Amino acid sequence: MHLTYQHGHFMWHELITTDPGGAAAFYAHVVGWQTNSYYPAGSSTPYTTWLDERGPLGALLSLDDEAHESGISPHWFANVMVWNLDVCLARVIESGGKLLSGPEAMGTVGRWAAIQDPQGIKLAVFAAKDPLEARHPAKHGGVTWNELMSTNHRAAFEFYCSIFDWQVLRTVNPGASDEYIVYGAYDEPLGGMFTRPSDHPLPIGWVYYIQVSELEVARARAEEQGAQIVTLAVEIPGRGRTAQIIDPQGASVALREAVAREDPKDLVT
To answer: How far apart are the C-alpha atoms of 69 and 231, rounded to whole Å?
Structure first.
């Protein structure tokens, strides 16, 4: 585990939603997160961060009416650390992706941009001015798994590998229709990729797994608060138990009760 975020590490997860207040109450009840709002220097718009017992882990942002009416739904959006933003964005374009927004300065902390992969899936990239202390996600409330469901997971991996230098740590069911790639950086598992089955209830995109100490308790709390349960508690060898949900505002997310100790060789879906 690195002490600071390295190139290719997921380092910030944002929820963009139509009802920030309702979302704050939902995640507080389900995973224990709190929020903190402040006004960045020179801004008249407050910025709200998610907090757990170890500090900030992401942000809670408002999806405005115009964007929502244009077809954008509430969703989670992650930021990945890169060493050089300009080099990263050049690789995005060369590999068939698009620049959606930026690059722009994020105060004095670093520079940011939003990108889209060749399959239309969005992600953000961030280059810090100075090293940023890394959070150890494998505790209650941490985002411990970053999973991509795409139209072609092998093509998707090649795209992201060209940008982030990710590695394939394990391939489950190689060559089969349900093949699953476990990817990572510096031999640390970050998540998985697979091709969307034709009967899957959700569209392609990223799904982020929040670790919880008791899956059944968290899942029940989510359902009590109006979440839709996409998958019930599923036992996954090497990764513990997971359940995928859609929060009351419509954003997909997953809950994960992890095994005591993980080995990349054992990570499967």
So the answer is: 28
In this structure, whether the domain defined by 143-266 belongs to CATH 3.10.180.10 is answered with yes
**pLDDT tens-place string over residues 211-268:** 999 999 999 999 999 999 998 777 765 567 899 999 999 999 999 997 755 544 444 4
Location of each CATH 3.10.180.10 domain in the chain:
10-128, 143-266
Q: Which CATH number fits domain 10-128: 3.40.50.300, 3.30.230.10, 3.40.1370.10, 3.10.180.10?
A: 3.10.180.10
Identify the helix (H) or strand (E) that includes residue 24: helix 20-31
pLDDT in tens, 142-156: 999 999 999 999 999
Q: Where in the chain does DSSP place strands (E)?
A: 10-17, 34-38, 47-52, 55-62, 75-81, 98-106, 110-116, 122-128, 143-150, 167-172, 180-185, 188-195, 205-211, 228-229, 234-236, 240-246, 252-257
